[in-house]
Write a structure and sequence with these properties.
heterodimer; A: mainly alpha; Clc chloride channel; CBS-domain; three-stranded antiparallel sheet; three-stranded mixed sheet; 4% strand; B: alpha/beta; Mannitol-specific EII, Chain A; six-stranded mixed sheet; 6 helices
Amino acid sequence: MDKTGENKQKRTLSPLFRRLLRLKVWVVERLRLSERQVTLIWAALIGVLGALASESFRKTSDFIHYLATGSESSIITSFVKLAWWQRLAVPTVGGLLAGLTLWLGNRLFASVRQKTTTDYMEAIVVGSGIISVRASLVKSLSALFSISTGTSIGREGPLVQLSSLAASLLGRLQRFPIPQRRHLVACGAAAGIASAYNAPIAASFFVAEIILGTVVVESLGPLILASVVAAFVSQVLHGGGPLYKSVGFNLHTRWEMIPLSCVGVVLGFIAPAYLRFLRTAERLFSKVEIPIPLKLAVGGAIVGALAILNPDVCGNGQGLLRSLFHQNWFWDEILAILLLKLVATAAAFGSGVVGGVFTPTLFVGAAIGMLYGQTILYVAPDLRSDPAMYGIVGMGSFIAATTGAPLMAILMGFELTLDYAIAPFLMVNCVVAYYCSGIFERRFMYGESLERKGAAFFNQQLAEVSIRDLVRLDPITLPKSATFAQIAETFVQHRFQHIYIVDKEKRLLGAVSLHDVKTFLDRPELESVVIAADIMNEDFPCVSPRQGMSEALHKFSEANSERLPVVDDLNSHRLIGSISKTDIILHLAGEKSGSGTGRQFGK
Amino acid sequence: MISRKSVEQLRAAIFIGNLEAKSDREAILKMLGALQGHPQVKDLSELSAATFDRQQSDPPLFPGGIAFPHARTNSVSSLVMVVATCPKAIRFSDMLVRLIFLIGVPKNAGADYLEMISFLARHVREDQVIDRLVKAEDLPSFLTAFAEGP
């Protein structure tokens, strides 16, 4: 005892040590990084990685383009120099190679694809933030062949894909939890868009508004940081400046505000037709039962055939947009290239080429806006309208109307031109276009795709999970002779909404619901008169481990309960455990359920 | 708080005064017999079987000599009740019973059953109330005695 007392005496801390300890605690508390701060740091790194991934794709694409056309110029310039048969052959062979890449990838990595996703939107919204490396590389290689050989498809798709893949790998490497991994992949997507368009603000809002569906600061902060860093690195690597530098606009008369404010109405009503046109092309190609390589070759051949008529249809439309804004185009030339570009984009998109339709959509909006501007100039020459101004406003309005993201469209329109004078008109027209489009079309460009992927992912997850995996053993039970007092006591002790009633052989007889008895729990007169058999629901739904999760969810909707009893067999009805909605949701979200009282089945 | 619904159900009950029986089974059978042709009773034999089945589990008895034989069965379309007074007490398990409330309730009306039992049990806690109720000769006098309270 004395000895222990001596030891205690020795262990007493000196005042200096105490002060040092307090200082250490103070420093640790002040310097401890929260999850948000850590995410910000990783977001910046993802910005760098995203820009580097995008730049690598660009360089590789330029190299393949050189191999295919023998020219280091832009896609349109290269195609102008080609003979007619080469204009046809290059996109056709490119499509064939792109298709062969996809076909081989599907054969080699089918098992990988089933377990992970290749789509960044899916990984962010419904997935676990894990993007398949091999399948992503296959898609990117396929996109490289298509884009480098002049197919009318945007390269922002693979840029975002690679950038998101880098973020996903980082998240996996650091073993981040699923929500953080998803957030980092979202940062990767924003970085990819920012480096593709040199538009960091719009990139952050693209991901926030379209994919995450929220613009709260918690999620937007890291997206902005990743985008800004990516845009900065991209500017360092291949120069800065807006993608479509504005020539500077002035309103010659205030009356011009009237037609300029109506661009959104026109584009808003045309946008649903454009979306349906793309969907129809996709549907038509899906009906043609030929192997993927041939399908993509056909898509490439259509673009090639159109390129014989006019090489301007080739590529994503970025060069064409610059030309549209800075050179004088006659209305019939604009109309002709618009129609050709529409067919070329629909052929590429419909055949299943890997890539994006964002830039082609920007072109369609700009071209229609310019046609509208030309019409105004013809009808009211005194206004001295500049059709390019209508083109830029049209570009933003069309993006707002097709993506259903007016905020992003306003910012994108502004960042692509960096012309503040156009901003108020962009704001008005983007919002108007969005509302006009919404009258006829509820399924926007990325929303439909997300819905489809979400449903497919959910169904796949449901099919994969079995009730057996999620059963919690030893649920709370009572015999049918249990008194009302025992029932009340059990409800007080446990947080469950139902108590299962079993016989001596543990066969499930029914369930007593807290909802049914809660108003009577304080009535002592019932304690000796009422037993479980008097108040149990004999038809309470139950499931067996052999049933699928879809059936369990159906039963949940019948029972209106957080838990369902699990019986070994629907004939014998021997109770083995229970399954909860929370566990199912956590499982679908990719989380392991840790709460609950019982042991888990088969674990 | 008095449940209006329970009061209405009690008013609609069948009353048997001075019920005489040598056993609980005989008493219950006589009370079930009073439900013959009752519009809410779809199948009397099923109601009878369910009532005796419940009696075997744990006869619901309340201190002071009150029995609540009952059944949750879909052989009745809504709550039905037979009230019997037994000046000559009848043995139910180990209790001498002077008042019997036989209740038939549909399976989906568990709350009605709990409400009714709670309502009755709260009103007949006192011996003097039971004494008064047992003396009732018909339903109106029974209801009057019931309404007087403890």
